[in-house]
Amino acid sequence: MFNVEQVIQQQMPGITGKPWLYKPVKGALSYLLHEQEFAAFSQQYPHLQGLDFVEQVLEYFNFSYSARDTEIARIPASGKVVIIANHPIGSLDGLALIKLISDIRPDVKIIANQLLMSVTALHSLLLPVNNMEGGTERGRLSEIRKHLQQDGALVLFPAGEVSRLKPNGVRDGKWHNGFLRFASSAKAPILPIYIDGRNSALFYGASMLYKPLATMLLVQEMFKQQRKNITMRIGEQIPFDSYGQLPLSTKEQLKLFKKHLYRLAKDKAPLLRTQSTIAHPELRSELKADLAKCQPLGTTSDGKLIYLYHHQQSSALMREIGRLREQAFRAVGEGTGNKRDIDKYDSYYHHLILWDPTELEMVGAYRLAPSAEVIANAGVDGLYTASLFHYNQAMQPYLEQGLELGRSFIQPRYWGKRSLDYLWYGIGAYLQHNPQIRYLFGAVSISASYPQTGRDLLVYFYTLYFGVKNSPALANQPYLLSPEQQQSLQQHFCGNDYSADFSQLKHLLANMGLNVPTLYKQYSELCQPGGVSFLSFSTDPAFADCVDGLVLVDLQQLKPAKQARYLS
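Structure tokens predicted for L-ornithine N(alpha)-acyltransferase:
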């Protein structure tokens, strides 16, 4: 891995020409740095690289770690994340942390200083950076940013060096802002982990006398960790919108994050707003077993399978629906903030599932239920949409022949691949089995991540062309446009040419970097004029204050092309 001669050449080149000094220094360093043990390890395991090397080192030292199962579940199974930790031991704690994270995230990379980069066997896990002094090459910074852009997991020790003994215990020194810059640039969540470990009294005494001497003792300290176990406390992730706009200086933010992390040691309340990590994926074998019990509805041209699922207790399928639903909605600025998006309605609604048998992945799902069936068993309040809108008597004919749709999602890796269209084939197959259904209705959301101007434009446009007088549904928390807002928005549209005004809507949204939400476009183009209505618009506090439009579709006015596409 390394030898003492290299260390002397790099750190103390001035003594190489002084044999009287070089020899005793070399002997002392050879002892302090356990050169023989490292050489023997390298000879015994020359083939080990990356995680295999990490596991063997931990086994060699009989060094272990423990963490609560409920907290390990906080490590996100996918998606970009910046993981920060204190550094109490300065050696094996780093390898233990890599092992812990890699069990969930094989794509993990750790930001390494020059010393760690000298261990060639670790190179596949490392992204080099000068964490202590700055001055990292631009190309190296680009590698780090690219890793996060590709949804990788990144580990940093913000202190950049081992913790020291302070009046309040073993604590990191000054934290550096690299983790904050990388996370902010990628808009990545930050996951704090507290490591409960310590070095010997000799090390802390040497630190007080002469810090470089203590650094030289770190290898000795590593060997003193043999047969020891450290505990790791994993916090909830801190989303970007919790720290991205803090009215604090960088120095104040670093202090806040540091205090937040150390509070994990004593189960104290977090200082920064946190968010539950999305649940880990279900076992593929359990998903396949559950799918075998589902009603098959069809197969797409590229081999995707469409199923109808009726909820059963302790179902891997339902847990996976909830996990992927939360993932998809968070990706557009919505979501419940829970590890799974599952509510009471899921237990008695049906679920249309699109399954990729090649990748063994759930592509997406749609929740649906005949409203008459729900009302017969649970009353009108049993409908999901009744939690957002109040139905009056005029809604009764639609509910008697209606199918409520909602909570549809496509998991992000399948976006832009006709997946939503395939789910509509499934809806068509369901309708063919249920000819009594004439109407489709449900809540269609506009993300709260859209600025108010964008939401106003969409609500105004869809009310202009698809609104109804004397609506049979009233929003519980109406999204209202004032007369002044309506007058201002009216100037953008002629009001009697849908195609021209829709082009104008797309243009205005594009200027804000936005698109018309897919389902708004899809529903509004299903029918002949008069076949689609938006009955009301409501704000939904349970989903990050997104805006829900209540759509109503009369299938008897379906366009012939849509009829042929989905119902033939």
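Residues 50-266 form a domain with the Glycerol-3-phosphate (1)-acyltransferase fold (CATH 3.40.1130.10).
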